[in-house]
Amino acid sequence: MARLKDIAEYVGVSISTVSRVIQNDQTRNVNPETKTKIWEAVKELGYIPNQHARNLVTNKLTKNKTRTMKIGWVANPKQVETNPYFVNIYSGIHDTLTANDYTLISITKDELENETLLLKAIHELGIEGLLLIDRIDDSLIEYIQQTIPVVGLDFFYTDKNIAVIDYNREAAIKTVVQHLISQGHREIGFIGGGLNESFEDLHAEYRFKGYQSAMEEAGLAIRPDWVINTKWKMENSYEEMSRLIKRDRAHLPTAMVCASDLMAIAAMRAVIENNLRIPEDIAFFGVDNIEMGKYSSPPLSTVEIPKYEMGKMAAKTMMEMVEEKIKLPIKLILPFELVLRESSNIKRT
User: Residues 173, 298: one domain?
Assistant: First the structure.
């Protein structure tokens, strides 16, 4: 196992310099370039900063290791507080861990991306595993996995080599489009959000891929002006839907497939305010089956996603990995189902 001396020799600095950087000692300045080299060496050599962290690696092999019963949770705090989709996932995680005497500790993405705080979160807080829903870099995941188990939720982690709990977004939207086609719709638009940090890359997002695939299989054209990238903001959904209507009111889609209920509800408001009818003029279909969708006007057709169950299964998977009952990065894809309500209940001829 790497020591401070190994890092010092690798970088070409003194052991005391390495120690100051790792301990975040502010009493003496260290050149930023040197700091970067030291942290790179920490990751490359697999240095574990303190005895507790060493135990997490070596005591996997002992029967008497000290348990902290702490699990870290990395998510956007605003999403967990305000977005019903993430609130339900969090509830499933929290309830399951609490019932099994585990403590859930919130860790922000910023804390993990700061080298000092990353090491503190993993090695000093004593977390035994990490649940991910906010996106972090692959290199960080690889480093963290050297020490503790990692379980990912949501689409950021579907293709990663870690344990994942998710649902098939592409299949869900494909099923929605196929249902609308069976109802007689041929002119179908899409509202969603893209990937990457700025949410620009809509074509790489799985729900859009499902829409695109279903339309192509049915031989239906996708009109670019009927595809809206909201960047996952409700206000953008409302404003862009209003622009679409005002731009060419005589030629509108007969249905809009929305990547989330929140995007659908905002766009529906724009339709009503422009004196159009739902579903007679434009039908709407969302995803998530959040509570407020039942009370929109009209009630929103949607895809039921087992949000609470996703959180519950993520927590159970994490506990089994921490307790070494599971050693492989399993992937659980949970089922979905269509929930038909008034926003899409008219069959077109």
Answer: yes
